[in-house]
Design goal:
Length: 295
């Protein structure tokens, strides 16, 4: 992967450096902002504001918010972090979304099928308007998938990776992803652990393997959309779906009020899928063990 830096020069002092080679653009504040933690926090604030204003908006507003979030990400990476953004390149984006979406769809369908086979779920048709339910679910989940992946895999994972390497970044972002879901309805310590393992590790491994935001966006989107259309709570939230689901038996099997993501089934499946992704990531150089100061 090509790397560029607008803040480093091979020899001599450029027009933006003093005779000692110190960057004069922005002074100390500029240097802090261009550090990995600096551009990570800058991007998180910007994308967080966009998400907060658009995530629950009417009609296509969540999709417009996703577009705005990508623009904020690009600006922060190019103007603040001063790095290229191959992870959001348009070339091949459709293919990556479809590939990730196929994995996310299969992951949730197989998990739900296994839970149903063990007597945990029973489904019935909700009888509500098909197109309105699907439209609402699609636009909301596009917004959620894009903004969350830009925050956690685009910003946090890559910033921490520059500081401490891929393995540490994967562990930290996975734990943070689990903790971030503690504020949702029905959440508890187990649901946070489950989210960290099945979602944080899986989505992080998916990014390290493909080095492509669109791949993990597709996986995340199909994951959430399938749950919602099946009528299964998505991280504790129970939006309108095409089906209604009744749960039976242990919460360890069904996930209880938090939904399928707190079931042991997707936890085991998520780890099983993430493992070969990490092997492939290591083979193609996606696992980094030292700090990369520029991209």
């Amino acid at each position: 992967m090509d790397t560029i830096s607008a803040t480093q020069h091979d020899t001599g002092s450029g027009p933006d450096e003093d005779r000692g080679g110190h960057d004069r653009r922005g002074g100390r504040l500029g240097r802090v902002a261009r550090s990995p933690l600096g551009w990570m926090l800058t991007g998180m604030v910007g994308i967080g504001l966009v998400s907060g204003l658009t995530a629950t908006g009417p009609g296509p507003v969540p999709v417009l918010g996703a577009v705005a979030a990508v623009a904020v990400y690009w600006l922060v990476m190019r103007r603040v972090a001063r790095r290229s953004t191959p992870e959001i390149a348009r070339a091949g984006a459709g293919r990556e979304v479809l590939l990730g979406g196929g994995i996310g769809l299969g992951f949730i369908l197989v998990s739900a099928l296994l839970i149903t086979a063990f007597g945990g779920y029973s489904f019935s048709w909700a009888g509500d308007g098909f197109m309105s339910v699907v439209w609402t679910a699609v636009v909301v989940q596009i917004g959620a998938a894009v903004t969350e992946e830009l925050l956690f895999r685009g910003l946090a994972l890559q910033a921490l990776e520059q500081l401490w390497g891929s393995r540490a970044a994967l562990v930290i972002t996975s734990l943070f992803f689990g903790v971030a879901h503690l504020g949702t309805p029905g959440a508890n310590a187990w649901s946070a652990v489950a989210i960290a393992l099945e979602a944080g590790v899986l989505l992080g491994a998916a990014f390290l393997w493909r080095r492509n935001i669109w791949f993990v966006v597709g996986l995340h989107f199909a994951w959430n959309l399938t749950q919602q259309l099946l009528g299964i709570p998505v991280s504790g939230h129970a939006p309108e779906g095409l089906f209604t689901v009744d749960t039976h038996g242990s919460a360890l099997l069904t996930g209880g009020s938090f939904g399928l993501e707190a079931s042991i089934m997707p936890v085991l499946m998520g780890v099983a899928i993430a493992a070969p992704m990490l092997v492939l990531a290591r083979r193609n150089g996606g696992i980094r063990t030292r700090r990369h100061t520029s991209r």
